[in-house]
Amino acid sequence: MLENLPDVVTMSFPAGPSDPPDNRTRSPPLRIVRYLLLIVVILLLLPYLVAPFYRVGHPVSTLMAWRWLKGAPVSRQWVDLSAMSPYLPRTVVASEDAKFCSHRGVDWGALREAIDDAEDGEVARGGSTITQQVAKNLFLWPGRSVVRKALELPLSLWIDLVLGKQRILEIYLNIAELGPTGQFGAGSGSAYAFGKPASELSPREAALLAAILPNPIKRSARNPGPGVRRLAGTYMVRAQASSLQRCWGEKRGF
Length: 254
Known about the structure:
By secondary structure, the protein is mainly α. The chain has helices at 27-50, 62-70, 87-96, 108-119, 130-139, 146-163, 165-175, 185-194, 203-211, 226-238, 242-249, and strands at residues 75-76, 183-184. Helix content is 53%, strand content 2%. The protein is globular, with a radius of gyration of 29 Å.
């Protein structure tokens, strides 16, 4: 009887497409990339979140923090803008950022001139405003790079909006490097150079401090050379410019 049963037919099917690869093998790398992108976004947004809190307090610069981490000396005596000699903020604005009162964080005209100089192969003039220097010193890093400048410009516009001119100038004068061995800010810079508080600076002493920016290691207000003395004289004259007097007279944030 068994002999009458049909033979078992072995069925064969054409080979189909291979099964898709297990997605789990791709998940870890993709997850790492997503986490890295999230970290980058957080780091980019963090300065914008932190900046409004700097309306008060005594912020420190990234350079100050880096020196602390290395164990290098750091000296800073915070001085409110109202407690400084009035000659110092005026002279620093005259020397560093003549349009400080009128721009909104970035002097686009000075920036274009600096770019044109670089394209022509000339020594690039400083196109950074005081607000841009505050943005760099508080949140970014020193040195010149396209990446840093691209981050600096929108951040400067934001800082100008949320902090205002008076506070920006106060922060700058308290975080700028003003001595060769870690002296930061007007208080420590004045004490090191002249042995007096920032409230007692004369017009010439204020101009000498302004003249050593941005390189207080090669330039000295304590023992000024001919170049520093010449710059100080120029800055004293600039501080009396009518446009700057009008800025202070109209109290645009001061």
